[in-house]
Design brief:
Elements lengths: L8 E6 L7 H11 L3 E6 L3 H4 L2 H8 L15 H8 L2 E7 L1 H8 L6 H8 L4 E5 L3 H4 L2 H12 L3 E2 L3 E4 L5 E5 L3 H12 L9 E6 L4 E4 L2 E3 L6 H12 L3 E6 L11 E4 L3 H11 L5 E4 L6 E3 L18 E3 L3 H5 L7 E8 L3 H11 L4 E6 L11 E2 L1 E5 L4 E3 L3 E2 H19 L8
The structure holds ligand PMT.
The site of ligand PMT has 28 residues, from α10, α12 and β16.
Length: 408
């Protein structure tokens, strides 16, 4: 694990879940690592564990109420003082409140007033975890840059098996560390990221598309923003909210994506094409809805513009990164695309692997640079995958990039 930065003040928010007792272990680990920790508990958290436990272990007062008699405005002073807010365990209730800007107790008011980065580790029953409104609220928080450490599968307090167990302490600690150690190593860069699918219309009501959700590209946009870059996100149709402080252009077709990428390319220093751009589109788009008349319907398709390959001659000193979504011969095909499109780096994912590819929160990728060097990453969240891709790009920027950009 990375080393813990010196003299950091972490606010540990504890909410009303049976997993609240595990916050004690998290508190101990944070303190062993050298952090100053202030604990804030909601009233339901106190039904599960007493504030005194945290007070003794943290050697600091534990705050439970917005209205404690005090000469300071507690929620404002704490909000300004802390370097990071960790809410573990985070219940469906606190997630819903924070995602919707509700500030009705000390913890939620403090979150509203603070600009410190936030990490949340949800814990709840499996059916609650799968509730669509909760998932929507998590997407909102994700879009705002909150680092969510997803719960794990296992035996739940209800006696049922499912997803909902608080993530292990190591994972929570490592998320806290990566937020605290975040570097501004892309400051001064303008990063153009493409994300999501394209839709190629057949008629006014139908289109050809693919299963890309946009999650990988949005994670990259958020991570690049977090490292200090100006980020422009050219996005195909998705349901994802625009990440905070990212400029977004919404497009539908490959041709529209090409136009948007060309529009922003002159101001771009780094292009990352994570979008799953259609390779073919219908040659003709019917003005009227196609009628069910013949027993067989033949569609004539034509190639779409290859956005990356077309930019090869105009790239100058820009770093260009592509993705390869493959279902076999991963490295051979990725290498061919890297060469053909003149890229500095290609991110190859075998989308047949469990936990990799389309519409998931995780990915399994191999990074291949223009020297032909490969780095295989394990299954990671798309947020973590994005960070590792950016680490590799920062290394390339540091000077080892070959001039001719051909494989050796
Ligand atoms: O969006 P998610 O659900 O999170 O899924 C993530 C993902 C699987 C879509 C992502 O990880 C991924 O692999 N994206 C690239 C998918 C793809 O289109 O791969 P490709 O091998 O067909 O294309 C190679 C590269 O050329 C890509 O960078 C692509 O953006 C680019 N391309 C493709 C076609 C085209 N006409 N122009 C292009 O620039």
């Amino acid at each position: 694990m990375e080393s813990f930065p010196h003299d950091k003040h972490v606010l540990l928010g504890v909410t009303g879940s049976i997993a609240a007792y595990k916050s004690v272990l998290i508190l101990r680990r944070l303190m062993e690592a050298g952090a100053r920790v202030t604990v804030v508990m909601t009233s339901s958290a106190q039904q599960f564990i007493a504030p005194l436990t945290f007070q003794v272990l943290s050697r600091r007062p534990v705050y439970t109420s917005l209205f404690d008699p005090s000469d300071e405005i507690r929620h404002l002073t704490l909000a300004e003082q802390v370097d990071l807010i960790l809410i573990a365990p985070a219940t469906a209730n606190i997630i819903g409140k924070i995602a919707n800007g509700i500030a009705d107790d000390l913890l939620t008011t403090l979150v509203t007033a603070s600009r410190a980065p936030m990490v949340m580790a949800p814990a709840m029953d499996g059916d609650m975890w799968n509730y669509p409104v909760l998932q929507r609220n998590l997407s909102v928080l994700d879009g705002l840059g909150v680092h969510i450490v997803p719960p794990e599968e296992g035996l739940l307090a209800s006696g049922k098996e499912g997803v909902g167990r608080l993530a292990p302490e190591e994972k929570i600690l490592s998320a806290v560390l990566s937020r605290l150690n975040r570097r501004e190593d892309l400051a001064g860069e303008t990063v153009l990221v493409t994300a999501g699918p394209t839709q190629e219309p057949l008629d006014p009501v139908r289109y050809l598309t693919n299963r890309s959700s946009g999650k990988m590209g949005y994670a990259l946009a958020r991570a690049a923003r977090g490292r200090g870059a100006r980020v422009i996100l050219v996005s195909g149709p998705t349901h994802l909210p625009c990440p905070a402080n990212v400029e977004r252009a919404l497009v539908q077709t490959a041709a529209e994506m090409r136009d948007a990428v060309h529009r922003y390319f002159p101001e771009t220093t780094l292009l990352i094409m994570a979008a799953a751009v259609a390779d073919y589109r219908p040659r003709l788009r019917s003005e009227q809805k196609l009628k069910k008349e013949a027993s067989t319907l033949f569609l004539e398709l034509e190639p779409t513009p290859d956005i990356l390959a077309d930019l090869r001659s105009e790239r100058g000193d820009r770093i260009m990164v592509g993705f390869a979504a493959e279902t076999g011969n991963l490295l051979k095909r990725a290498r061919a695309k890297l060469e053909q499109k003149g890229l500095d780096l290609i991110v190859a994912n075998d989308v047949t692997q469990e936990g990799a590819g389309f519409d998931l929160d995780t990915n399994i990728v191999t990074l291949m640079n223009a020297r032909g060097e490969t780095t295989a990453l394990p299954k990671l969240s798309k947020a973590e995958t994005a960070e590792r891709i950016l680490d590799e790009i920062v290394k390339l920027k540091a000077g080892s990039r070959p001039k001719d950009r051909t494989l050796r």
